[in-house]
Amino acid sequence: MRMRSRLWILPVITALVAVAVALPALSQPSARPEGAAAAAAGPARGTAPRPEATGVVLAVHGGAGTALRREDTDARTEKAYRDGLADALRAGRKVLRDGGGSVAAVEAAVRSLEDNALFNAGKGAVFTEDAGHELDASVMRGSDLAAGAVAGVRHVRNPVSAARLVMERTPHVLLTGEGADGFAVRNGLPAVTQDYYWTQARWDSLMKAKEKSRGGTSPSASGKAADEKAADGRTTGGRAVGAEAVGESAMGTVGAVAVDRKHDLAAATSTGGMTNKMAGRVGDSPLVGAGTYAKNGTVAASATGHGEVFIRGAATSTVSHLIEFGGRDVAAAAHEVVHERLTRLGGTGGVIALGPDGVLAAPHSSEGMLYGYLTAGGEIVTKIFPDESRTGR
C-alpha cells in the first residue's frame, strides 16, 4: 500500500523534466525576428565595425543630420552636393600633390567648403537669434599636438585660416570675438561685412525658428530643432535649394582630415553654429578634443552633430584615447564614441576619423551625413545618401 501510494510521484517528475528541457528553447527568439532586428540595428553584436575605406589620404564632411533622400532629391541638387564635396577634395589633393603637408591640405579643403553657400560654414553660415552671424573653427596638427581655433568671429571670410594663424603665430590656442577678428585682419586675412554671409535660405530658416519659438518653444530648443533639420541655405546657380527643395536635410558643419607623405595627421572643423542660437554660444567645432583632434600614430578626427553633447563627451579625443589606450582600431573606436558613448548622453551626429595607415571611418548616429574621401591613387568618392555609407547607422 505504501509503495502504491507513492507511484503518483513518477508522472509528476516526468512532467517537470519535460518543462525544464523545453524552457531554454522557449526563451530563445526565433531566427527570423533575430535576423531582422540585427539588420535594423547595424552590425551584429560581436561583429567588428567596418572601416569606410582604406588607402585614404584626405576626407571631408559637410554635416550630419536628417538624411537626403534619393526620391526627394533632384539631379541638380545632388550634383551641387557632390560637386561641393569633390571641389574640397580637389583643393586638398592639389596641396598634397605639390608636396604640402596635412595641415595645409585640411585648411585648403575646409576653405573650399567655407566658400560654398551650400554648407553651414563661412559663406553659408546660419543666423543667431539676433539675426547676426558668429563663426567658429579649429585646426590641429598631429605631429606635436599644436592647435589653433577661433570662436564667435563676425568678419572673417575663412575662419579655418584664422585658426591656423592662431596655431602658428601666437602662443595661444583659442581666440574669440573681436580679438579674433582683429588678429585675422592684422595677419592679412580678408575681412567681410555681415552681409557677406547672408543667404535667403538661411534667413528663411531663422524665420521658421522664430515662429516655432513664438509658438511656445524656447529659442535654444527651436534653434537646435532647426539645426537638426537644417535649412542649410543651399544655393545652386543663385536658386535657393534650402529646406523646401531638399526636405530639410542635414546640419552643415564642415571638416577635413588628412595624412601626408610623412604620415603626419591633421584635422580641421568649421561651422556657423546652430540656427537661432543665443548670441555668444560656442559649440564643439572650435574646441580641441571635442570637434577636432589629431595625434600622430592614432587618428585625425572631425565631428559634426549636437555640439553640447560632443563637448561633454570629448568626442574626438576619446576616439584617439580608445585607440592609444584601449587597443581599438579606428573603426571600432569611432563607432563606440558615436553610437554608444554620445547617444547615451542624448546626442546624435557623426565623425570622420582617419588613421595614419589610411583607414577611414565615418560613423554617424544621425540619419545621414555628407562626406567624401580621396585615395592615395587619386580617386575621389562622395557620399550623400544613406545607402552609400558603409559605417553609418
Quantity of strands, as a count: 14
Strand order of the largest sheet: 4-3-2-8-7-1-13-14
Estimated helix fraction? 25-40%
Mean pLDDT: 84
Strand fraction equals: 15-25%
Element-level helix/strand string: HHHEHHEEHEHHHEEHEEEEHHHEEEE
Low-confidence spans: pLDDT under 50, at least 5 residues? 1-42, 217-250
Please, how many helices?
A: 13
The class by helix and strand makeup works out as: alpha+beta
Give the overall silhouette: globular
First and last CA, distance: 70 Å
Computed CA radius of gyration, to the nearest angstrom? 25 Å
For the sheet with most strands, the description reads: 8 strands, mixed
InterPro entries: Ntn_hydrolases_N, Peptidase_T2
Region (Disordered): 209-243
Protein name: Isoaspartyl peptidase/L-asparaginase family protein
Pfam families: Asparaginase_2
What's this model, at a glance?
This protein has about 400 residues and is of the alpha+beta class.
Overview of the molecule:
The chain has an eight-stranded mixed β-sheet. The chain contains 13 helices and 14 strands. With 393 residues, the protein is of the alpha+beta class. Mean pLDDT is 84; it is low at 1-42 and 217-250. The chain has helices spanning 2-5, 9-27, 31-41, 75-97, 102-114, 159-169, 177-186, 200-214, 219-229, 243-246, 307-312, 315-324, 330-344, and strands at residues 56-65, 135-141, 146-153, 174-176, 235-236, 239-240, 254-259, 265-271, 292-295, 299-305, 349-354, 360-361, 368-375, 380-383. The protein is globular, with a radius of gyration of 25 Å. Helix 4 runs antiparallel to helix 5 and helix 5 (102-114) packs antiparallel against helix 6 (159-169). Pfam families: Asparaginase_2. InterPro entries: Ntn_hydrolases_N, Peptidase_T2. It comes from Streptomyces aureoversilis.
